[in-house]
Amino acid sequence: MNISLVNNPKDKRLLQTADGSWTLHIPEVEETYHSRHGALQESMHVFIENGLNQCSSEPIKILEVGLGTGLNVLLSLLNAHNAIEYHGIEPYPIDKKLVEDLISTSEGYAQLYRYIHFSTVDEPIPLGSDFTLIKHQLKFLDFNVDRLYDIIYYDAFGPRVEPSLWTMEAMQKCYDLLNPGGIWVSYCAKGEVRRNLIAVGFQVERLPGPPGKREMLRAKK
Fold first, then answer.
1. Per-residue pLDDT tens for 94-124?
2. Which pLDDT band, with edges at 50, 70 and 90, does 2 fall under?
3. Which residue in 112, 124, 111 sits closest to 78, CA to CA?
4. How many whole angstroms separate alpha carbon 10 and alpha carbon 109?
5. Measured between alpha carbons, how far is 36 from 54 in angstroms, rounded to an integer?
6. Rounded Cα gap, residues 70 and 99, in angstroms
7. What is the pLDDT of residues 191-202, one digit of tens each?
8. Is residue 131 within 8 Å of 84, Cβ to Cβ?
9. Sign of CA dihedral 33, 34, 39, 41
10. CATH: 3.40.50.150, 1.10.3720.10, 3.30.499.10, 3.30.200.20. Which one for 13-220?
11. pLDDT (tens digit, 9 = 90+) per residue, 156-166?
12. Alpha-carbon span 67 to 115, nearest angstrom
C-alpha cells in the first residue's frame, strides 16, 4: 500500500543545513524539505545545473512537483537564460508564520519570497520581465492540464514517506506531461524509481549527486 506519512503535517520547523542555507524539518517522520548537507547546494546541483541549464527552449516551461519553500523558483529566476513559464504544485502550502520565519533567512530576497508564497493560486504571477509563476494547490496525481512542459523538477518528498509519488503511475504522468526531448530531474536515485522511469519510456541517466548523495537521476523523453 502506498500510504503517505506526510499528509499535511502540522509540525514543521526551520533547520539550518550544512552550507548555511535553510530548509524545513518534519520531526514526526524525520523528513526534511532539502538535504541536510546543504539545501542551496542540492537545489543548484540537481535542478539548475542538471535541469534548467540543459534546456534551450524559448520560453522554457517548467513544472515543479513540490513547490515547498520556493527555493527552486528563486534559483530558476536568478539563473534564467531564457524566458520561463513556471508552474508549481504544492498541496500543502507553508503557513504564513513559517513563511515569515523563512523570509528572515532569505538575505535580500524577502519581497520575492512574499510574492511566491502569498500570491493567489492558479493565477499568473510576474516575478520578472520574462518569468511567470503559476501555483497549483492540489496533489500531483490530481493535476490535469492540456499543456506540456520542457522540464519537470521532481522535488517531492522521498519514497520512504510519500511512496505514491514514485510509482509507475506517477512516472507515466510525468512522461505524458513532457514535450518530446523534455527533461525530468530529481535528487532521488533509488533503483525502483529508475526502473519505473525506464518502464514508461524514459531514457535515464545516473549522475553524480549533490554533497551527501552519491547519485541523482535525470531522464529524457
1. 988 989 998 898 878 999 999 999 999 999 9
2. low
3. 112
4. 26
5. 26
6. 10
7. 999 999 999 999
8. yes
9. negative
10. 3.40.50.150
11. 999 998 999 99
12. 13
Question: Among all chains, which residue has been given the C-alpha cell 508549481?
Answer: 88
Please give the single-letter amino acid code of residue 117. Answer: H
pLDDT (tens digit per residue) in 125-157: 999 999 999 999 999 999 999 999 999 999 999
Domain positions in the chain are: 13-220
pLDDT score, position 11:
81
C-alpha cell at 181: 526531448
Angle between the N-to-C axes of helices 96-103 and 110-118, in degrees from 0 to 180, rounded to the nearest 10: 160
pTM beyond 0.90: yes
- SS3 for the chain, per residue? CCCCCCCCCCCCEEEECCCCCEEEEEHHHCEECCCCCCHHHHHHHHHHHCCHHHCCCCCEEEEEECCCCCHHHHHHHHCCCCCEEEEEECCCCCCHHHHHHHHCCCCCCHHHHHHHHHCCCCCCEEEECCEEEEEECCCHHHCCCCCCEEEEEECCCCCCCCHHHHCHHHHHHHHHHEEEEEEEEECCCCHHHHHHHHHCCCEEEEEECCCCCCEEEEEEC
